[in-house]
Each structure stands twice: as structure tokens, then as C-alpha cells.
Specification:
The protein has about 625 residues and is an alpha/beta fold. It is about 45% helix and about 15% strand. The protein has 4 domains: about 190 residues, P-loop containing nucleotide triphosphate hydrolases (Rossmann fold, 3-Layer(aba) Sandwich); about 200 residues, P-loop containing nucleotide triphosphate hydrolases (Rossmann fold, 3-Layer(aba) Sandwich), CATH 3.40.50; about 110 residues, Orthogonal Bundle (Arc Repressor Mutant, subunit A), CATH 1.10.10; about 70 residues, Orthogonal Bundle (DNA polymerase, domain 1). The protein contains 28 helices and 17 strands. The two termini are about 40 Å apart. It binds adenosine-5'-diphosphate and magnesium ion (MG).
Length: about 625
């Protein structure tokens, strides 16, 4: 069977996503491959399809035990003979997995690195193994953000199966990480398949942070009843935000490493099974989350690097439907990250320098009034297509949507000079608050005692208001015209050499002015953006289909997205299939799924389910 036929029959998809076919072909022809595709790019299919092709056994090494069972469930929904072997397995499924493996029934086997390295599987695997896939392959690299020492030993195991092809998969890989993967896993003359990092269905927004809770709540309120993740910096922030969101009636739970294992497991489980809309978490949360209909990710604090941001925000919209990523920026977050790194004596100087650059990059991303899709693509050394088409913009970030406006060049320069000269006047002896007061013309004891109320800059930005002035100061810090220095106890604001040069019109400056985001949207985002053809009746049907899917999932003990994706339900709501054949034509509904759930969905579409649903 051609790969396309397998794709249609098993998964119900009419065509491959970018580079999937190349990856599948390499595997089927026994060649090694490195596959770099963004989150939601469809990496699983690259090794699952070869398993479905019936040539032999495919083993997948994955660091995420928590995720394995869901992956196995999803593969089984596509009709694959899939199992997992890891330390958390109960006796019965473990025995079954071994039976299947020994009798040669298994097509796809997920293992943890430890499980593989234990060695006792080598013999049975060596008989049938055609492909060894290593998922989350960036974990082999020191340069990555999730280094796992045991990943360094995977090659030992792979070398036991010289005739099996190798496939390494990851979502984020800078050139250094890529090199590391190729070397550490011993890929032999590999096909290197690097996809475009852009996620066109994500709408990126970055705003200066003014009132953290209020801004978070606003962003949450745009998505009633939908899944979202709120990331905050510290455990305390997480607890506080979660408690206040709960007070506002938001269905949410906190998640951080300080909570008990059981509490964390429960929160994750409820979120994945759609019993909870929002998780408020530190970055401890996420690696093991495959809920595909996360409709928004909010960063209440600035993350440590663009890589972190891409990884964390990337958990939104894996199903390809529109999703929102909002970052609340404050230069003080960067200072906090820097402070933590300075304190860490185990960090070698070159790591500290790398961190410094990372902070600068994320600061620039979050505060420059420049297309955010474009900036992200550039960060990962990729061209951004629409930027080349006459500066039309992406249509999917606060800048291109006209929510954040860049000040015209002349005005930006003038504004910057006003702020810089105030800082210059203060000679680096005061904090940001003091300089803000000066610019806003707020009288105060210290200001008058210093005679600063008589300065020319006193009140020179009164009209602009505090939020704008603070935002500009952050932008000037990120662009290195100002710096914050720690002098004993207090952070002090100081003009840099570049700042002094800018005052003499040497240097480029960009300043943005955020407008208010549109708020109070009622309709689920997924529907609004899926196309103008979605009617109220479609929407009502979609909601009913989701409820029925949840009931099915509850009964089967698997997450709803494993049954089928939101995108498939949405298409059903619009197409209203009335026969199993028509249902098969819906994207993502393969033969097995139609067999198992077709009747139920067809009943809902036909309105025959009234008492059963909800
Ligand atoms: P990744 O591991 O790259 O983040 P997944 O393998 O989890 O991505 O796939 C993301 C989503 O894309 C899944 O819902 C999957 O069913 C869907 N998908 C995979 N391949 C295709 C395809 N060829 N056409 C449409 N959807 C696909
Ligand atoms: Mg994946």
C-alpha cells in the first residue's frame, strides 16, 4: 500500500503535512533521519505510519512516561497494535505488552530510555526491529533546554540494531542542538528534514504588564469554557493567580513542583480530560501535556528565553485550530532571571553569557513593536514568508493586528530622548519609579529636595501617562539605551553609552504604544476563526459533540482528544454527515474510529441523542 493510502485509511487524513512524507519514506527505505518540526507539526505520524505499513516493529524512545499511555491509546484508535513498557505500568498491561511483543503482534512499542537500556529487550527486538525513533531528541543535548543524561546512552542501545533505521524527532533545535543530536545518536548519513518553525494558527500578543491579575483575567475571559494554560514565575505567583481566578469563577487549578505528587497528577489528569479549563503553573508543567485543544497560553511573567517561550506557548493549538498566546512583559522579570543566574555558582561563565543573550532576545521579542511571527522565525534562522510580500504582516500578532502601534520614527526618537535625558539628569542614582515621577511631573519630597522639579524634563511626558512611560523605559532597557544596575539594595536606572549617543541622534530606535486589546468575546475562539461559514446552529452542535465525546472518553478511560480532535468535530458540525461513508470523509476520522464511534456521532448530528448527551 502507498503511504497516502495508509494515511487515509488509518488516520482519515487526505494529505501529509510538510516533511511527513519524506520522513516516512526514509524510514520505509531503511535510512536514518533527523526530523525537526514545530509542535503540532505531526511528528508522531512520521514513525507511526511506518509501523502501520507492516514491515516490522517500530520502537519509540520517549522521556515522557506520563504521556506514553495516551500516545498508545491514540495509536490504537488508528488501529495500530501499540504498547508501552515503562516503570509505572501495572502488572496486567505489562504482561500483555510482553505477550504481544514475544508473539510478534506488536507493531509499535513505546519505551523509556531506562527500559531500553536495561538490555533485556535486545534479543526480542533484534528479530523484528525496522525503525528506532527517538522522540524529544533535543534531550540529548546540553545546549537544549531539557537535557537528560540517560539520553546520552541511547546510542549504545541503538548500536545493537545495526540494520534498523534511526529517526530523531524534536520541535526546537538550534544548529548546536542539531549537531549534538546527529552525533550523540549516531545517525548514519541521515536525511535532515527541517520544517519551518512558524505556527500560523497561533496569534501572538505581547503587552507591557501593568496589572498582572487584571490582564490575565481579561485574556482568560476571551475563552469561556475553553482550555488554557497560565504560566507564572514563582510558586507564590501561581498560588495567588489561581486563587483569584477561582474567586472569579474560573475553573482552574494550580500546578508547581511544591505541590504533592498526587495533587499534581490530579490537576494534570483533570485538565487533559477536560474537567478543568485552566491550569496555572510554573514551567514545571507542560512537557507531559498533549491536550490538543489548548486554546490559549498566557505568560503572566516573561520567560527566560525565546526557546522557552516557543516551547511553552507552543502547547496551544496543536490541533491546528486558532489559538492565542499572550505574554505580559516586564523588564523586572528579566532582572529576576539575571539575579537567579548570578546567584548560581555552579553556572560556568559561558552559560551566564549565553543567558544574558537569551534575556536580551526575549526582551526584544516582547517589547519591540515588530511582527512577532517574523521575530520568532528569525530567531530560529528561518525566513518569514509574509514579511517578504511587501510588509503586509502576519495578521496574527498584536503588531500586525494594529493593537500595538509603533510610534513614527521621529516621534519615537523624540520620546526616547526625553526619557534618556531625564535618566541622564538623575546620574544613575535613582530607580525607575523616580524617573517616571519626574517625567510625569509628579511633585514629591525627594523630587523637590533634589531640585528636580525645576528641570526641563519635569512633567515632559505628562500627557502620555504612567503605563506608556513605563513601557517605553522597558523598551529602552531592552534596546540597551538604559540599564538597570544593582547598587547594594536598590535597582537603579542608568543611561548607557549607546543612550548618550542616541541623545545626539546616533543610533536607531523603535518604540511601541500598546492599545487596549479587544475584550469580552463570547464565542469560542475555535469557532470564530475557523471560517465565516460557522453558524449559531453549527456552534450548538459542536458543543453537543464535544459533550458526547467527553462522555465516550470517560467511559473508555482515555482523554477526549484521543477519541478525535476538535477540528474533526467542528467539521462534523458544519458538514452534518448522515452516513458512515460521509463520516469517513471528515478529516481525522479513519476507519477504526468510524467503526467505534461513528454511530454515536451520527446520532448526535441527526438529533437522535437528546436525552443521552450532557
Ligand atoms: P507533534 O508531536 O509534532 O507536536 P503530533 O504528532 O502530536 O505533533 O500531531 C499533532 C496533530 O496533527 C495531531 O492531532 C495529529 O492527529 C495531527 N496530524 C498529524 N498528521 C496529520 C496530517 N497529515 N493531516 C492532518 N492532521 C495531522
Ligand atoms: Mg510529539
Amino acid at each position: 500500500m502507498e503511504p497516502e493510502e495508509v494515511l487515509k485509511k488509518r488516520w482519515g487524513y487526505a494529505s501529509f503535512k510538510p516533511l511527513q512524507r519524506e520522513a516516512v519514506t526514509a524510514a520505509l527505505e531503511g535510512r536514518d533521519a533527523l526530523v525537526v518540526l514545530p509542535t503540532g507539526g505531526g511528528k508522531s505520524l512520521c514513525y507511526q505510519l511506518p509501523a502501520a505499513a507492516g514491515k516490522g516493529l517500530v520502537v519509540v524512545v520517549s522521556p515522557l512516561i506520563a504521556l506514553m499511555d495516551d500516545q498508545v491509546a491514540a495509536a490504537r484508535e488508528a488501529g495500530l497494535a501499540a504498547d508501552a513498557l515503562h516503570s509505572n505500568l501495572k502488572a496486567a498491561p505489562r504482561r500483555e505488552a510482553y505477550d504481544n511483543l514475544n508473539s510478534g503482534r506488536t507493531e509499535l512499542l513505546y519505551v523509556s530510555p531506562e527500559r531500553l537500556l536495561a538490555g533485556d529487550l535486545y534479543e526480542v527486538l533484534s528479530k523484528r526491529l525496522v525503525l528506532a525513533a527517538v522522540d524529544e531528541a533535543h534531550c540529548v543535548s546540553h545546549w537544549g533546554h531539557e537535557f537528560r543524561p540517560e539520553y546520552r546512552r541511547i546510542k549504545e542501545a541503538l548500536d545493537r540494531f545495526p540494520s534498523a533505521a534511526r529517526m530523531a524527532l524534536t520541535a526546537t533545535a538550534t544548529p548546536a542542538v542539531r549537531e549534538d543530536i546527529l552525533a550523540q545518536l549516531g545517525l548514519r548519513n541521515p536525511e535532515v528534514l527541517i520544517g519551518h518553525p512558524d505556527r500560523p494558527n497561533l496569534v501572538y500578543r505581547a503587552y507591557p504588564r501593568r496589572d498582572q491579575f487584571k490582564q490575565v483575567l481579561e485574556a482568560v475571559r476571551r475563552h469561556p469554557g475553553e482550555g488554557g494554560i497560565v504560566y507564572a514565575q514563582t510558586r507564590k505567583d501561581v498560588e495567588r493567580l489561581a486563587a483569584r481566578l477561582k474567586e472569579e469563577g474560573v475553573s482552574c487549578a494550580p500546578y508547581h513542583a511544591g505541590l504533592g505528587a498526587e495533587e499534581r497528577r490530579q490537576a494534570q489528569h483533570d485538565f487533559v480530560n477536560e474537567r478543568l479549563d485552566v491550569i496555572v503553573a510554573t514551567i514545571a508543567f507542560g512537557m507531559g501535556i498533549d491536550r490538543s485543544n489548548v486554546r490559549y497560553v498566557i505568560h503572566a511573567n516573561t520567560p527566560r528565553s525565546v526557546e522557552h517561550y516557543q516551547q511553552e506557548s507552543g502547547r496551544a493549538g496543536r490541533d491546528g485550530l486558532p489559538a492565542d498566546c499572550t505574554l505580559l512583559f516586564s523588564a523586572s522579570d528579566l532582572a529576576a532571571h539575571r539575579w537567579l543566574a548570578q546567584k548560581d555558582f555552579t553556572l560556568p561563565p559561558e552559560r551566564k553569557r549565553a543567558l544574558e543573550k537569551q534575556l536580551k532576545d526575549i526582551g526584544r521579542y516582547a517589547s519591540a513593536p515588530v511582527c512577532r511571527h517574523g521575530l520568532l522565525a528569525a530567531h530560529f534562522s528561518a525566513e518569514y514568508p509574509t514579511a517578504a510580500q511587501g510588509g503586509e504582516g502576519c495578521g496574527a500578532c498584536d503588531v500586525c493586528l494594529g493593537e500595538t502601534k509603533g510610534l513614527p520614527e521621529g516621534e519615537a526618537r523624540l520620546t526616547a530622548k526625553k526619557i534618556l535625558s531625564a535618566a541622564w539628569r538623575c546620574e544613575g542614582r535613582y530607580g525607575t519609579g523616580y524617573v517616571v515621577n519626574l517625567l510625569l511631573g509628579r511633585p514629591g519630597e525627594r523630587v523637590s529636595a533634589n531640585g528636580h522639579d525645576g528641570l526641563q524634563v519635569f512633567g515632559i511626558l505628562r500627557e502620555a501617562g504612567e503605563p506608556a512611560v513605563r513601557g517605553w523605559i522597558d523598551q529602552l532597557i531592552v534596546q540597551e539605551y538604559l540599564e538597570v544596575t544593582e547598587d547594594g539594595e536598590y535597582p537603579l536606572l542608568r543611561i548607557t553609552a549607546a543612550g548618550r549617543a542616541l541623545c545626539q541622534d546616533r543610533g536607531e530606535i523603535k518604540l511601541g504604544l500598546p492599545a487596549q486589546p479587544a475584550k469580552g468575546r463570547k464565542k469560542p475562539k475555535a469557532l470564530r476563526l475557523a471560517g465565516s461559514g460557522v453558524t449559531e446552529a453549527d456552534e450548538a452542535l459542536f458543543t453537543r459533540l464535544r459533550a458526547v465525546r467527553r462522555a465516550l472518553a470517560d467511559k473508555a478511560g482515555i482523554p477526549p482528544y484521543v477519541i478525535c480532535q476538535d477540528a474533526a468535530l467542528l467539521e462534523m458540525a458544519q458538514q452534518r454527515p448522515s452516513t458512515p461513508e460521509a463520516l469517513l470523509a471528515i478529516k481525522g476520522m479513519g476507519e477504526k474510529r468510524v467503526q467505534k464511534y461513528g454511530g454515536v456521532f451520527l446520532d448526535v448530528v441527526a438529533g437522535r441523542d437528546a436525552p443521552a448527551a450532557e
